[in-house]
Write a structure and sequence with these properties.
alpha/beta; Aspartate Aminotransferase, domain 1; Aspartate Aminotransferase, domain 2; 7-stranded mixed beta sheet; 373 residues; 4-stranded antiparallel beta sheet
Length: 373
């Protein structure tokens, strides 16, 4: 018999499972029996609304920046992301020492959890918060404390506060929350932070911040707590999901610890160039955010009319409730539309549908009416 490598691995490996992303178009078409040559023809008529990506593409300036730097990929990237840090510091009116850049915000979140928690420690997060918090906690060897939501969708900050113990090291909060789309006010968050010991690290994951900008205060300056880490990403509103670049803002002394765990050259040259250029294409980004919010309202109104709207979302996705949600998702795939079932989050009757372009949303609604009829 061969070696049982799972038994040879660290003990927490048995509890881990790979993160399952939104289904790629090519994968869905393969599952439907299309050949590789047929897949190339079918992709253009298939709509993916499963990963909360920017349906309008990447900022034009980012695309041009990638072309300009492509000839330099034989060189290692700037390991400190100097130019990108300078631009982000200017944008947020902070010092560069308050920034840590990552291979997507996911990497930095995982680094933070690994830096401050391990065997014998606890990490608190919402039961229906981003699933990576739980996976990163298990990988670190710590114990995850999943707190139920107060209304099935929003963080229950009082319950999270009650869950704090002497071995609590990290608390994770997504705002707006993925996958439920709920939003906490600045007042609610600061009241929560005021009641926490200063040594507890609080990750405030703001991957969808651009979609609520103007509706809530900028937490980077509005919220105060020694252990606060504010996370942002270029994967959503900035349309750079394929580049994998995100960042966190926090106390420099705290980030100095996290930086010890960071791999060298963790953000590639193309990602750095694209993110830097995207910051200078703000008009384009904000225009696409406005279009997304307009389309979100249209989708929610349509779902409301069908009696399928689960809750209002503040992010770039909507929530559909149906008693046979998984089957509905499969039927939509047969019509060429990919959505995200939330059964892995314990929400078996909910589908998360990314807000696409006007044409993509039209295709989704047409497919939805067809499979429901």
């Amino acid at each position: 018999m061969g070696v049982n490598w799972l038994k040879q691995a660290v003990s927490q490996s048995e509890q881990l499972h790979p993160y399952i992303p939104g289904k790629p178009i090519a994968q869905m078409l393969r599952e439907q029996g299309f050949s590789e040559s047929e897949i190339a023809k079918q992709q253009a008529s298939t709509v993916k609304l499963a990963s909360n990506e920017n349906p309008y593409g990447a900022p034009p300036k980012a695309l041009e920046a990638i072309k300009q730097i492509a000839g330099e990929i034989c060189r290692y990237p700037d390991g400190d992301c100097f130019e990108l840090k300078q631009a982000l510091a200017a944008k947020h009116k902070i010092q560069t020492e308050q920034l840590l850049i990552g291979n997507g915000s996911n990497e930095v979140l995982e680094l933070v959890i690994r830096s401050f928690s391990g065997v014998g420690d606890e990490v608190i997060y919402s039961q229906r918060g981003f699933i990576v918090y739980a996976l990163a906690t298990i990988a670190a060897g710590a114990k995850g404390i999943a707190v139920p939501e107060h209304d099935g969708f929003g963080h229950d900050l009082n319950a999270m506060l009650a869950a704090v113990t002497d071995i609590t090291k990290v608390i994770c909060i997504a705002n707006p929350n993925n996958p439920t789309g709920s939003l906490l006010s600045t007042t609610e968050l600061q009241s929560f932070l005021n009641k926490l010991p200063s040594h507890i690290v609080v990750i405030l994951d703001e991957a969808y911040y651009e979609y609520v900008m103007g509706e809530v205060d900028d937490s980077i300056h509005a919220l105060k707590h020694d252990g606060l880490i504010v996370s942002r990403t270029f994967s959503k509103a900035y349309g750079l999901a394929g580049c994998r670049v995100g960042y966190v803002v926090a106390n420099p002394d705290l980030l100095a610890v996290v930086n010890r765990f960071r791999e060298p050259f963790n953000v590639n040259s193309l990602a750095q160039a694209a993110a830097l250029a995207a910051l200078h294409d703000e008009v384009w980004v904000l225009d696409k955010v406005a279009q997304c919010k307009q389309e979100r309202s249209r989708l929610e109104a349509a779902l409301q009319g069908l009696g399928l709207l689960a809750a209002h979302s503040f992010a770039n996705f909507v929530l559909l409730r149906h008693e046979a949600a998984t089957t509905l998702a499969q039927n939509l795939e047969q019509q060429g539309v990919i959505v995200r079932p939330l059964a892995p989050y314990g929400m078996a009757d909910i589908l998360r549908v990314s807000v696409g372009s006007e044409a993509e949303n039209d295709a989704f609604l047409a497919a939805l009416h067809k499979v429901l009829s």
